[in-house]
């Protein structure tokens, strides 16, 4: 058994592995794309609401940053689809999988930033309270645990056995 076979735990060619990984990646991206597109669509409507004019300069700045983050996350999470379409049939699937995976990780980071900024804005407007920082920090820690901590812990446990 080669090092590659031990690492993957599967008896597959590099092309079969790339096909499998591509399918898994696209399924993951579909979940993230749905969330970011719904959030981004909601964000786009905020500026057209009457209450928007009443926001403070700081809140408007947070809103603009949030929209830019949402647009960036959308671009990164849709990027793998465009990548696949442009390189399909060119025998570069293993490289395409690596690039799409990186785009997805960047997209997830940008989605985390978008959700954080959205939460800051919503809680600032809704509560006017000082607890906003602590609530947002708690939610961000939760995101980090779910999105990065548990997967990295699991990966570490699996690869150190």
Labels describing this entry:
161 residues, mainly alpha, 83% helix, 0% strand, flat
List the helices and strands and how they pair.
Elements: H1 3-8, H2 14-46, H3 57-87, H4 93-127, H5 132-160
Helix pairs in contact: 2-3, 2-4, 3-4, 4-5
Order of helices and strands: HHHHH
Total helix count? Answer: 5
Distance between the termini: 17 Å
Largest sheet: none
Q: How many extended strands?
A: 0
- Radius of gyration from CA coordinates: 20 Å
Mean pLDDT: 90
User: Helical percent range?
Assistant: over 70%
Overall body shape: flat
Q: Which structural class should the secondary elements be placed in?
A: mainly alpha
Strand content is: under 5%
Low-confidence stretches: none
């Amino acid at each position: 058994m080669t090092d590659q076979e031990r690492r993957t735990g599967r008896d597959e060619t590099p092309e079969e592995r790339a096909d499998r990984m591509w399918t898994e990646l696209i399924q993951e991206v579909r979940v993230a794309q749905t969330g970011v597109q719904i959030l981004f669509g909601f964000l786009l409507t905020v500026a057209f609401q009457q209450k928007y004019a009443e926001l403070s300069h700081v809140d408007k700045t947070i809103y603009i940053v949030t929209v830019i983050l949402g647009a960036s996350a959308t671009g990164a999470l849709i990027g793998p689809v465009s990548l696949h379409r442009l390189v399909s049939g060119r025998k570069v699937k293993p490289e395409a999988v690596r690039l799409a995976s990186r785009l997805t990780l960047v997209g997830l980071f940008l989605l985390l930033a978008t959700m954080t900024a959205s939460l800051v804005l919503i809680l600032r407007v809704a509560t006017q309270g000082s607890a906003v920082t602590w609530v947002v920090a708690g939610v961000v820690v939760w995101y980090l645990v779910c999105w990065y901590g548990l997967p990295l812990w699991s990966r570490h446990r699996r690869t150190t056995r």
